[in-house]
Amino acid sequence: MKTSIATVCIGGTLEAKLAATAAAGFDGIEVFENDLIGSDLSPEDIRSMCGDLGLSIDLYQPFRDFEGVTEEQLVKNLRRAERKFELMHRLGTDTILVCSNVATATDSSDSLAVDQLGRLGELAAKHEVKVAYEALAWGKHVSRFLHSWRIVEAVNHANVGVCLDSFHILSRGDDPAGIAAIPGDKIFFCQLADAPALSMDVLSWSRHYRLFPGEGAWDLPAFVSRVLDTGYAGPLSLEVFNDVFRQTDPFVTAKEAYRSLVSLDESVQASRGQALGSTVDAAGSAIPSAPASSGLSFIELSEGLSHETPQLLNALGFQDVGLHRRKNVSLWTRDGVNVVVNHDLVGPAAIASLGVDVPDVAAASQRAAALHAEVTPRDEAGDEDSMAGFVTPDGTKLFFSADKRRWRSEFPPAPEGDASQTAPTRFDGFDHIALMQPWQRADEAVLFYRSVLGLSGAGSLDVPGVRGLVQSRTLESPGSAIRLALNVPPGEPNVETILPVHFALACTNLVATVRELKAAGVQLLPIPRNYYDDLQARFDLTDEEIETYQSLDILFDRDASGSFLQAYTTTGGNLFIELVERQDGYTGYGAANAPVRMASQQRRTTA
Amino acid sequence: MKTSIATVCIGGTLEAKLAATAAAGFDGIEVFENDLIGSDLSPEDIRSMCGDLGLSIDLYQPFRDFEGVTEEQLVKNLRRAERKFELMHRLGTDTILVCSNVATATDSSDSLAVDQLGRLGELAAKHEVKVAYEALAWGKHVSRFLHSWRIVEAVNHANVGVCLDSFHILSRGDDPAGIAAIPGDKIFFCQLADAPALSMDVLSWSRHYRLFPGEGAWDLPAFVSRVLDTGYAGPLSLEVFNDVFRQTDPFVTAKEAYRSLVSLDESVQASRGQALGSTVDAAGSAIPSAPASSGLSFIELSEGLSHETPQLLNALGFQDVGLHRRKNVSLWTRDGVNVVVNHDLVGPAAIASLGVDVPDVAAASQRAAALHAEVTPRDEAGDEDSMAGFVTPDGTKLFFSADKRRWRSEFPPAPEGDASQTAPTRFDGFDHIALMQPWQRADEAVLFYRSVLGLSGAGSLDVPGVRGLVQSRTLESPGSAIRLALNVPPGEPNVETILPVHFALACTNLVATVRELKAAGVQLLPIPRNYYDDLQARFDLTDEEIETYQSLDILFDRDASGSFLQAYTTTGGNLFIELVERQDGYTGYGAANAPVRMASQQRRTTA
């Protein structure tokens, strides 16, 4: 796969864009007209800079509003095109993108477009340029890719072909199976973008909300497969207009972009029945497939400004088994659930790292590195467990470990008389971990967890909080051994909008667990009476059930499969812990209850 | 006009919402179900709190997914409704909003909906409740207001009427003239929201992007006129879901909301042929109409961290006429254009205030106060000009002055031999002032300038900057004596995204002015050669024109009416000054050139 990316995808000056693109491992770039016009590098300078960086210039774009115009306008357009062809010659690129006319077309007939594009083809041939004609989703008369192909087929000129862009095709709901109608040698270019499942006008959607493949809702592997089926062998090029990317460090964005293409290639290979591991990294080595994790062997939290982490763990019956033999971190454990408390991390409570059980650390690590994940070595000595560490876009660290019992021996053994062994109820592992996302990195984080860990899902939900909407996207590993909730707080994180950190423990019997905790004097988040009045109006619950839930501050939800019970500790400092029970395969996260929970938390904060 | 607002419009706890609503002067509120469910105030507590604050509870909402369902589901829905009617009795409100079914309807026939809403009417009558049925724009079977009216008409029950919501009607493109078909006494409620001119799916549009009247693109006065024509005399209630409002201080949002209703009332009165001044404030006094400003008599800037303001003014031939007789501010003047430099304001260069010439300071000031503008007194002594000062949402201060020559005498007279009197070219006043908008306040600022100053316009444009998109909205007074460009930088303002401050001076002959400046050694922002190559490809300009513009770093644009020339000083510290010439009634701001300008500025910053 020849990889390419449009300069418009990333921020910074043209010089920075070129350097970042090369550093991320791309083979080529598309030069966007505005980037050239605003630059004081001459076209020759840009050409030689790309040459030095090992980048080919695969496309010059965009050239707009050419066809379907009056003869008088066409003469002007041909003059404009000739100037651009001369420029391309200086730039050293031979393909120009011509978008379907959105503004100046006065005639909707295909025959006029065919005639005028034919004349452009003649001029292009003289300048040894190839014209890639693309149907913009909001084109005035030509807005579907099969329409652009009918026109190009009728033009029947060696220098005129089509450009296929996943955005313009999938945003219109067109079936990529139709691509089969186009011979591969008439596809002059292929541009890729993913997008969230919005349904807004295609122009705004396109200009602001495109995403890299794997960050949105579209089936890009199926799309690319259709393109490759035609015999197309040109670049797969990212063209992603996104408000966030343009504000971000171009080197970070370029790596993210490259990760998306590698991951896409992998999915394409799999969907085409290739053996796993047939995707290769920039150096040509095979990339191992995503690790089949059996779950989280531990999570690591900071102690919190007011020691809230140990206090809450203690309240929930976790035992402090003591300090690591070398490091200032303690292990707390109950029912085989392990939480490491780091005493050296200062600041509000935060989830610092996740210990991910994988069958093969070397393979998981090689994969992460090939996907440009940033390495963070674990502090290890002697015969300690050998883990591989990576930093996620949201700052959480992942530590891959192959044998969860090995690191356990770095801590003291559990004391005799472990309370958890006599408790009538048990925790059944982590149900999910909520990870706070800076809004600038949230889409990147989805791609990261999908590609590096092989999680899937990521349906998006807006939860109305007291200070604004919280966007929540959930991801799961196959079999749900790992569940993550990626939460984006409203606006910039600050003292007003910051959300407390939390994770959820799975309970086998939440009613019994909460009774046990209440009997032990643990205070749970009080839920207002009005909530239970409404619950009674909404569900067929018995008075006794309502009364039980109300007396225990348990929230209730139901989906098509089953029921869900939730309770929360009160928030200590910046941390609370959620307790959940899933009944009969309930798959959600109780989102309907989140506004009530957040209002109750807010009341306690301001009280 | 009885004013009301839904609790969902503003952020904070229910207690804060009620207090903020009352403080802003509203007559009543709509209680949104989620606000009640999440509250630990009992319905009786809420009722008595509203009573103490002088607020009526005008509506309980929303009740969803009632009609068009199976008989089994209907029994459940009636049970749920009865619980809510009992709750409303405790709350002391008699009207419930029932939205058209979006989820559970299994039957699209009107007859079933009519039958089931009739049974709801019977139950409502027993509980003395009025049901206001509203067609949601995304209702499953009922999504247009005339459809909801046909159903209500057929129900023919005293306790069942319609709720009209401008969002659901205008977002579907329906003509509010159709409201005339509905008798006023069957309109049980009227909700208002404005919105930006997006075309996205109505659900997302509704949930995130509603605006208060006067902030968006819709003709709310025409809508309200149609409703009043029916004889409707109930509350006009704001129901605005907006991500920003929910993150803002509820007291600020409630005042903004109230301002929008007062301003709307004024427009409605005007459109119905009422005399001006027939709109009254909360205390019942008539509100004077918007001032007919003759322009800006001065603008006040801070000196800037590196004295950039005086340096740039000096470079452009402004003369420093000296200090104010009492204050540490200097007046700089050329060709009757006045810039005050404040030496006491520290920090980066910023536009601190605008001196607005108005015919009647007392009237302009009374209007601003009635619209909840925050007063900021000018430091005045003795016989100095008596101005009235107000702070805008973006922080700029407005000073209304009735006689622009009076304050002039507080500064020394201009020295003899004023360079501007001998210069061959002249400045013709301020063309426009660019005011930086924190994104959280930008919509509020549009409403403020529209209502307090009577500006109009505010088309929105996204300009691609090097660090992301800059949203720009322009407003003008009648006759264009005042032009403002409200610019929202990408993301939170910080060292990466902050935009330099600028204002634009109108030139009668830009080519001559720039020649004069260059001859005097003034450096203008260099524009890359690539820009002029493109200009030649885009416009029918002669080689000589292109060469002149290129040699003078002048940018060119053209619209349907005329041409536009622009040049920029280099940025000193945080300030640059734009020079423009409008030819033949060009109405824009040269937005097409902004990316080139920003790229050139960025290059100089990072060089």
UniProtKB/TrEMBL annotation, chains A, B:
Pathway: Aromatic compound metabolism; 3,4-dihydroxybenzoate biosynthesis. One of its GO terms (biological process) is 3,4-dihydroxybenzoate biosynthetic process. It catalyses: 3-dehydroshikimate = 3,4-dihydroxybenzoate + H2O. Residues 429-570 form the VOC domain. Keywords: Carbohydrate metabolism, Dioxygenase, Lyase, Metal-binding, Oxidoreductase, Pyruvate. A divalent metal cation binds at E134, D165, Q191, E239. Gene3D superfamilies: 2,3-Dihydroxybiphenyl 1,2-Dioxygenase, domain 1, Divalent-metal-dependent TIM barrel enzymes. One of its GO terms (molecular function) is dioxygenase activity. It holds the Pfam family AP_endonuc_2. Mg(2+) binds at H432, H502, E578. InterPro entries: DSD, Glyas_Bleomycin-R_OHBP_Dase, Glyas_Fos-R_dOase_dom, IolE/XylAMocC-like, VOC_core, Xyl_isomerase-like_sf, Xyl_isomerase-like_TIM-brl. It is an enzyme of class 4 (lyase). Its cofactor is a divalent metal cation. Its EC number is 4.2.1.118. HAMAP family: DSD. PANTHER family: HYDROXYPYRUVATE ISOMERASE, XYLOSE ISOMERASE-LIKE TIM BARREL DOMAIN-CONTAINING PROTEIN. Belongs to the bacterial two-domain DSD family. Catalyzes the conversion of 3-dehydroshikimate to protocatechuate (3,4-dihydroxybenzoate), a common intermediate of quinate and shikimate degradation pathways. This is 3-dehydroshikimate dehydratase. The lineage of its organism: Bacteria, Bacillati, Actinomycetota, Actinomycetes, Micrococcales.
